[in-house]
Amino acid sequence: MRKILVALGGGPTAVINQSLVGVVLKARLLGTVYGARFGIRGILNEEFLDLSDVPTQELEFVAVTPGSALGSTRDKPDIKYCMEIFKVLQAHQIEQFFYIGGNDSADTLHIVSEEARRVGYSLRCMHVPKTVDNDLMCNDHTPGYPSAARFVVQAFAGTNLDNAALPGIYLNVVMGRNAGFLTAASALARKYPGDGPHLIYLPERTFVLERFLEEVRRTYEHYGRCMVALSEGIHDASGAPIASQLMKNADRDGHGNVQLSGSGALADLLCDEIKNKLKVKRVRGDTLGYLQRSFPGCVSDFDQRVAREVGEKAVRFAMSAQDGSVAIQRTSDYVVGYELVPLKAVAGKTRVMEDKFIADSGTDVTDAFRAYLYPLLGSGIPEIHRLSSNPVEKILKKS
Amino acid sequence: MRKILVALGGGPTAVINQSLVGVVLKARLLGTVYGARFGIRGILNEEFLDLSDVPTQELEFVAVTPGSALGSTRDKPDIKYCMEIFKVLQAHQIEQFFYIGGNDSADTLHIVSEEARRVGYSLRCMHVPKTVDNDLMCNDHTPGYPSAARFVVQAFAGTNLDNAALPGIYLNVVMGRNAGFLTAASALARKYPGDGPHLIYLPERTFVLERFLEEVRRTYEHYGRCMVALSEGIHDASGAPIASQLMKNADRDGHGNVQLSGSGALADLLCDEIKNKLKVKRVRGDTLGYLQRSFPGCVSDFDQRVAREVGEKAVRFAMSAQDGSVAIQRTSDYVVGYELVPLKAVAGKTRVMEDKFIADSGTDVTDAFRAYLYPLLGSGIPEIHRLSSNPVEKILKKS
Known about the structure:
Two copies of one chain form a homodimer.
Chain A: E1 2-8, H1 16-27, E2 31-36, H2 39-44, E3 48-50, H3 56-63, H4 79-91, E4 96-101, H5 103-119, E5 124-129, H6 145-165, E6 169-174, H7 181-184, E7 199-201, H8 209-223, E8 226-231, H9 242-246, H10 265-278, E9 283-287, H11 291-294, H12 301-317, E10 324-332, E11 335-341, H13 343-346, H14 367-373
Parallel strand pairs in A: 1-2, 1-4, 4-5, 5-10, 6-8, 6-9, 7-8
Antiparallel strand pairs in A: 2-3, 10-11
Helix pairs in contact in A: 1-3, 1-12, 4-5
C-alpha cells in the first residue's frame, strides 16, 4: 500500500479542515493516509495519526469545525531539519506529502522538495493553499480568506450600528501583515448612506499619522462620528510597521515575522493620539484578533466548497510527474477552476492588493474590489435594517 | 389620541430593538407612538420620530437588527435636566414614557418619575430591562445577556481550537464592569476534556497578580497551553479595577463609570507580565470589545423572544396605576414570567454573580451556573468536533 502524509502549517482558518478532509477522503482510496500532528514538527517527532479508517461522518464533522484539527506549526526547516524529516519519512516509507498552508508553508515545502531531489529521495510534494490574508501569488483568492472576510463584514456591520447609536470615533484593527484584502473587506459592511467604515487604511499605502488625524477630524465633523478600519500592517514611508515601532516586547516567529496580532497596542496608541490631538471624548479601539480566523458559525459556504476542492485536486495533481501548488482561478464570477503551479511560484512570495482595488483617496476600495469580493462571501449574510425617518415637528424649537 | 414615548438608553445589544418593536406594536394600538432619538437627549432636543405608521414588516426587520435603532445616550439627568424634559413632554402632551435600558437607565427613569410626581406632572414611567452585563436586580436574567453570552461561547470555542493548533498562552478580556456573568459564559465553550478556557477571572473575586501568574504557569505546564477568560472589571483587594490602574487617559461617562471597553490595555499588560515572569514565548491577548454586544448573526432565539415580550408586557403593565420596571422570572428551565417591580428596586443597583455560581477555586464556574445559562443560549449553536486519535507506532523513537 502507498503511504501518504498530510499536515497543516501556519495560522488556522475556518475552513482549513475542509482541505484536510478533501485530501484524506480522496487519498485513502489510493493508500494509507497519515496525518502529522503540529505540521512538520510532528514529522520530526514521528507524531502521526492513521486517518485511513476514521469514519467519513466524523471527518465531515471535523471539516465544518474551525481550527487545524491536526495542529499546526510556525517552524521553518533548515537543511539539518530537512535531513531529520527525510529520515522519518524514509523509515515510514512515505511517498507523497500534502502540506496545507500559506506562502511560508509553501516555502517550507519548496525547501523539502528541493532537498529531496538533491539527495535523491523520491517524494511527491504537494502544496494546498490556505491563508486568511489572501496573499498567495497565482491565486484568484485563497481558502480561508472568504470566511475571515465575512467575519470582518459582519463585525463592521454590527459595530457600525453600535457607533451610530452612541456616536464617537471607533477604530478596529484587522489582520493582514502585508496585504490589505481582509481590512478592505470591511467596506462591504456598508449598506445605507453614511454607514461605516468611513476610512480604510491598508498596508499597500504609506500611513502618515498627521494625514490620518486630519482625515478622522474631517469625517467626524461631517458625520458626527467616524468608523475606521486599520490593517495591523500599516507602516510609515520607510516601510516600518506602525505597530512594531510601538511594541516593546516584539516577538518574532521562525520566519522572522514580528508578532502583530494578539495585542491591542496599535488601536490603543492611535486612540490616544486622537484623544490628545483632536480633543474628542468618545474614542474607542478594538482589535479583531484571533476571532476573525476561528469564529464558529460565521463561514462562507462558497469558501467551504473551494477549500474542499483544493484538497481533492491536490490528490489528483499528485498523480502527475511533478511537485507543485494547487492554484485557484476564477473562470466566471461564481465558478473556479484549478491548476498546478510550481512551488517556487508561490513559496515565500506575497501578493498584495492590486492598484485597481484601491480608491484614489487611498482610504477606500473601488467598485472592482466590491465586485471581486462579493461572490466569495457566500450566502445568508444577516441583513441590517434602519427605521425609516418620520420626524415629528418640533414645538419648542430650542435647538 | 394618547401620546406615548419610547427611548433606548445605555449600550446597545443584539436584541434591544426587539423590545422597542414590542413596545411600538402594542402601544400603537392605544395611541400615537413617538420614538426619541439618542435617549433622553433626544427628548431635550425634541428629536422625535413618529412610529405610529411605520410598516409592521419594517419594524420586524429592525427587530432582528443589532444596535439601538433610535440611538442611545449615556446622559444622566439632574433636576435641571429633568425640568427641561418635562417642558418638552408637556408641549407634546406625552402621557407614557417607556425607557429601555440597564440599571443606569432605570436610575434616570427613577429620577424623572420622582421629579414628575414632585412637580405634579402626570407621567407613566415604565422601565424595560436590557443589559449584556446581566446585572439587574429582581431579574432571572436580562435581555441582551443571552445573545452576548452566546457570542462569548462561540468566540472561546473558536479561539480554543486556534490555541490548541498553535499552543501557547491566550487571554481574552470580556465585558462586565461589576458582574462576571458574561465572562463566566466562556465556560460553556468547553466540550472535550482539556478544552479552554482553563482559568476564568471574575470581578466577584479579588485579582492577585502573583496568584494569577502561578495559576497560569501550572496550567501551561499541565496542558502545554493555557486559555484564560478575564473580566474587564477584575480588581485588586482595595476594589480598584486592574484595568483603570493602568490606563493613562481614563475616560468617565455621565454616570462616573471609568471606560473599560474599547481598549486592549488590560490584556496587553497581563501578556507582558506573563512573558516577563514566566518566560513563555507565545503569549497572546485579545479583547472581545464591542463585537460581543453587536455581532449580527450570533443571536439567541430565546433572547429574541424574551426581549420582545418585555416590551409588550411593559405596555400592558402601563395600564396599571404605578410606575415600575418589568422583571423577568424563570418559572421553569425554559419558561419565563413577568412582574412589575418598583423602579427603585433596580435603579442604580447592581446584581453580581451569586456564590453558588462560582467554583471554590475562584477560577471556574459551577454546575449550577451551567444549568442556569444553558437554556438561555438558544438553539443552533455550531458544533465543534475533534479527530479521534489513532496514533501510528513510532519507528525511530527519537522522542
